[in-house]
Fold each of these.
Amino acid sequence: MKLTAFAFEIKDGVAHITLDQADRGNPLDRHFAEEINGLATECSINPDVRSVLIDAKGRFFSVGGDLNALAKDRAELAHFVSAVTADLHMAISRFARMNAPVVVAVHALAAGGAVALLAGADFVLAAPAAKFYAAFSAIGIISDSGGSYFLPRRMGSRRATQFLMLNETLTAQEAAECGLINRVIAPEALADEAWELASRLAQGPTLAFGELKNLLIASATETLESQLENEARAMARVTRTEDAWNAMQAVLAKQKATFKGR
């Protein structure tokens, strides 16, 4: 796949995706949407991918949607938005539901759809200088990219409403305190700690992680009894894997379990 908006490599089970339009602020434009959809598909079907690490180059993590493109042609705006979100939303869905856990490292400002995108990740680490800007209501539109789904789950419904409607900007510390991100990391250590976390996850029980991710997504809408049944079915599937059986034997033998993603 030829990429213009990203750099991409797979190393030691980690798929490393880097937003790579630093000169433009890494905007969520048509090329971004098309390419991230392709990358999400690759990560979801490639057995060599055991975790995903997303970071960015440049002054910003991402300035969010490309306002120049949005404001270019009023007659075509709805069509343009529908086309871009078709790719972008498919990517977000696949990242959320794939077996591989997703880690995001945020070094600077993330705005609009980029905040929604990282809210959908499994882990988010941020440098102290990182900021998280809602952005949408400033131009009279609503959150896309899964923001209305993931932000209430990370921050709580009332806090997410405040963030979006009042068009707030959160510091890294405020984002950690409200649950949007996991931890604030010193800037010189951010890249290494994000890679260490992604590598640790890549050595874990990938298929079990995938089942857990989907159970967590379902838990907000399922009844207790249906969620219990979902857990039972997922447990039955996981116990058929080589990873689960071999790990049980290793623990019984007082050895460290190793996982192969099978």
Note: Residues 206-252 form one domain.
Amino acid sequence: MHRSDPHAVNADLHCHSTVSDGTLSPADIAKRAFDNGVELWALTDHDEIGGQSEAASAAKNLGLAYITGVEISVSWATETLHIVGLNFDPADAALEAGLHKTRSGRARRAEQMGEHLKKVGIEGAFEGALSYAGNPNLVSRTHFARFLVEKGICSDVHDVFSNYLVAGKPGYVEMQWATLAEAIEWISGAGGVAVLAHPGRYRLSALEADVMVEEFIKLGGRAVEVITGSHSASQYRKYTTLAQEFGLMASRGSDFHSLGESHTDLGALPPLPDALTPVWHNWL
């Protein structure tokens, strides 16, 4: 695929499969992306690149342009940030080792979450979450949420998070993820581009947000998600201005997880504003 104007490309560079906390396999995500008109796609599972081979193969069979992707969990101040890595070498040893280290704490955290939920009368939550994830090192809050919805304790995943799985609620367990420096080093060292994912979701003051972005850039971060499934139209404008102010490239991605849960389907977002440089501008 080649387009003279990269802004015209329907790129979706943020989504999740069953390899992390999505509900479709990498191949099924590829098919849905293709059917929805996506022209450039990346699978970005949480702290895991085990689905990259299947995703790339399925995309190739469909004639869908594919780049490698991952979403790395980062502890910064009191917030958990997400850094998307794009177009890296998935065989890079340091990246693989770093992601393995980041995932390794998930199993113990999940057990603790199960213990906390048991104290408020919810039995079998860890086992239930594990049945969705299939691997203790991949259990996430989303898997717990699906179990609580299945049991009729909450009406939907968003209800579970609000009442059980955020700070101050019964099922929340704090986790020490990768540092911002580590995440960017792993991505950059593997030849990829580090992207600040969905900045509108972070609970940071204006000053804290500026400090975070400045640190992100100083460490080698090069792009920000401007158009994403969790941003409003006003946030599109806000992060367009931020990208221009800080000289960052812009990315676009639905953050699709599941048909019943996700706010935005694959390929359904508006295009990036013409004033921005798409992160994929020289990849086509």
Note: The mean pLDDT is 95.
